[in-house]
Amino acid sequence: MKLNDITILENQSLAPYAHTQVGGKVDYLAIPKTYLELQQLLNWAKSQEQPVHIFGRLSNLVVRNGGLRGLSILLHDLRDIKVDQHTITADAGADLILVTELAMTHGLAGLEWAAGIPGSVGGAVFMNAGAYGGQTEMVVTTVTAIMPDFKVQTFNLNELEFGYRHSIFQENGGVIVSVTFTLTPDVKSAIQLRMDVNNYRRADKQPLNYPSNGSVFKRPEGYFAGKLIMDSDLQGARIGGVEVSKKHAGFMVNIDNGTGNDYEDLIHHVQVTVKKKFNVTLETEVRIIGER
Predict the structure, then answer these.
(1) Of 215, 232, 245, 264, which is the active-site residue?
(2) How far apart are CA 274 and CA 256, in angstroms?
């Protein structure tokens, strides 16, 4: 159906849009191309008393087979990026990898750790993404969001409540719309070298040839999740079409038309096994949502 000039798809599967290529159907799906369209969609959902779910690139998320009720909005077409001296301001739907490459071309350092991370800028802030000694909180200065009352609010770094894979947006219901990073001038070749090293490390250790959500579990204090899983003889364990990667035990890959429920069931199997063997509770880094 149409809302002004915005197409709203009905009974649409999320699988084609997700990094894992899994996901149940949503009642309504829209992909706004401007912030005005996003505002119109939020207003429509409120008028229709529909719950709203906002996503970037569905790169750290598992949607169960039963899908989601209400309106789901994908922000990946909101992706403008602007560079101003030492700062980069990017729309929430901008590709994080493209932002790191743009930073390098302008001789700005601080995002090299994110060079190969799939996902959106908004998702990186929401989860305080990090790798190889870097985290989103190290380079973010301000975040602008649309709050549940539809007011636009700008958050400074000290208001974002960053923690390990955590930000304030996991509690306050705000929809991230843009992020400003403050970076450090450096030699382009040195920045590129650090990015190349990180990308090589990813390609060498991670199963990039299959759809996945990256690292599934948070790092337990005093342990590494991947080693606990490997030492529990779980590499290659499979439920449905989803398998614990034989290349990196911390990853689960979609090798044969897996489903969201397959992911969740395999996650539970790994958690139970590791808890039984090592008495360590693995907490998920990926979010699992939707109806069974």
Answers:
(1) 215
(2) 25
pTM of the full structure: 0.90
Q: What are phi and psi of 113, to 5 degrees?
A: -60, -25
Please name which of 175, 244, 234, 185 lies closest in space to residue 210, comparing C-alpha atoms: 244
- The catalytically annotated residue of 112, 243, 264, 285 is 285
238 given a catalytic annotation: no
Transcribe 192-234 into DSSP letters: HHHHHHHHHHHHHHS-TTS-EEEE-BPPPTTS-HHHHHHHTT-
Each residue's pLDDT tens digit, 184-235: 999 999 999 999 999 999 999 999 899 999 999 999 999 999 999 999 999 9
Q: How far apart are CA 239 and CA 89, in angstroms?
A: 41
Quote the CA–CA distance of 241 and 255 in Å, as a whole number: 6
Please indicate whether residue 285 is annotated as part of the active site: yes
pLDDT digits (tens, 9 = 90+) for 146-186: 998 889 999 999 999 999 999 999 999 999 999 999 999 99
> Strand 175-182 relative to strand 212-215: parallel, antiparallel, unpaired?
unpaired
Q: If you search the block for the tokens 């039963």, which residue do you land on?
A: 66
215 is catalytic: yes
Query: CA 274 → CA 228, 261, 283, distances in Å?
Result: 7, 20, 11
From 72, 165, 167, 212, the catalytic residue: 165
Cα gap 224→229, rounded to integer Å: 9
